[in-house]
Each structure stands twice: as C-alpha cells, then as structure tokens.
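Q: Second attempt. The first request was missing the SMILES, so the protein and zinc ion are both included now.
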Amino acid sequence: MSNEEIVNAELDKVPGYQIYFGYNRKILCPFHSDRATPSLSVCVSSQAPVPLGVFYCFGCGITGGWNKLAKSLSLREIQVDPNDGKRPSLDFKKLEKNLFGKGLEAILEEMGSPLVKSWPEEVSWRGFSGSFIKKMGGLTLLERSRTDDSTLKVFFPVCVNGTVVGGIRAAFEKPQMGPSYINTKGDWSKKAGLLFFDQSKKLALSQSALAIVEGPRDALRLIENGIPAVSVLGSTSFSKEKAKRLATLNLDTYYLIPDNDEAGEKMKDLVRSCAELILNLRVLNLPKADKNGDLIKIDPNSCSQHILDKIKKTIGDRKC
Ligand SMILES: [Zn+2]
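A: Got both inputs this time. The predicted holo structure:
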C-alpha cells in the first residue's frame, strides 16, 4: 500500500461528513468541537504541491503532518517521505488561500452556509454512478430556503490548479423549467470556469490531449470513458483567459467537441477566436443526422456509445 492509499483508507474510517475537492479531503476536526461542517482539510494526494497528509483546520487553526493527525484519531501512521523535508517550508497563510480552498469556504458562506455532505456512493445522478460522482468531487447540499422547505442539491466545486474558483449547483432531477445549472456568484465562470480541470489533469498530461465541451455532463461522460475533458460551463462562456489557462498544461492537441446545434456552432467560433495562436485546437463535429437522415440534437453526453468510441480512437490515434 502506498502512503496515499493508506491516508485515504484511514480517512474512510473517520466518522461524520467529509468533503472532497482538489487535492484535499475535509473532515470534522478532532482538535476542537466541530459538529456540522467539516473544517479540517487534509492533503490526500502525492501529486499536490505540499506533502501528503499535511492538514490545516479552518476552525481552530491547528496544522501539522499526517502522523500528528493519525495519533489524535488513532489511525495508522505513515513512513514519512524523506524528500518531503526538502520541500520549501510551508506558508500556511498562503496554503489556506491557495490549496485548502478558502474559496470553497467563502462560496458556501455566500450560498447561505448550506449543509454539505460528500457524495453518497449508493446514489447515482442522471445516469452516472455515485462512486464516479464522488470521485469527481461532487457534493450534496441541503439548502435552507426561505419557506421552511429545504431542498437537496448537487454541487460541483470548480477546482483549477488546486484553487476553488467557483462552483455550480443543480437539482437532482432535470428541472421542468429554468436553467439546469446555477453558477455561484462572481465573474469566475468566464475567466476560470473550467469544470473538472484538476480531475482531468493527470489523464490529459498522459495523453497530451484534452477535450473541451459545453456542459458538465458532457465532460463527465467523456471522462467516464477515459477521455480527459473540461466543461466550459456554457456555449458562450469562453475567453482568452480560459485558453491561456488550458495552455499551461502544454498539451499536443485540444479537441473541441461542441453540441451539434446552433449554440454549438457559435461556441465553435468563439473558442476558435479566443484560442487562436494559444492552443493547437481541433474540432470534432458530432453527426447532425442519424442513420435515417433525420435531424437529431445530440451532445457528447447524449450521443451513442459508438460515436464516443470513435472520438476516443481519433484522440488515441492522432500520433500515428
Ligand atoms: Zn479544528
């Protein structure tokens, strides 16, 4: 078992709500009386810029390494990687802001401090398994509405390079009327709204490719099929800033896969104009008609599996 596996398996034993995002997991703090929202954040990835297991509590401010936390919770300790000592000393003020998602705290506060829970593995969401949604950082929120009638929502923090830049929430079922997704406040969406950026990063770097799609579920379907993808959160929500952020991954090819409708056409023009000279962009068009020649609206989420397999093959074969 690697240290990363040990830390995650041990945290599974900690009772109470947990929140997953970016490189971190938040648990109820054992060092102060922490009852509702988890406030102690633990780094659970060996890919993170700080050592695995380092923790920080937003409630009481306590910090330290994994073994200190493990002792207090009677969890298994790890053999600390000697290289971790050679990393630059930790500036927790900076960490608080950049790595431990101060953004998430602020965002949740703005939303009226809903009750937050990590995704229950046994609950699937719009065709995706609960364990997949959990792995992708999905959370459930219990929003307290003005009329006593509380509603359960799906929430995805948008995490770019370890920083929570914003979030989107959606109803459990597709609403009859109104928007499918609601962004949290602020202008982050146009500049930095790249949903699943951090979750796709590793896969994107290994394939030196990334798919750019419109909606959250488009990206989820591709990622589920082994294709790294980000959702730009809407067909009109692209900008030079986003293109530049994507360019920091330094990938061979970026594949734009728009919906096959008019909005998709507009998205194509917008992304092309913003990404020009910044990204090596290729457009993969979804078919506009089915076998019988009937016009049919599809997107990367609703398209048939054979179209998806073709996309996967195109991305995989490009170097040949
Ligand atoms: Zn604490």
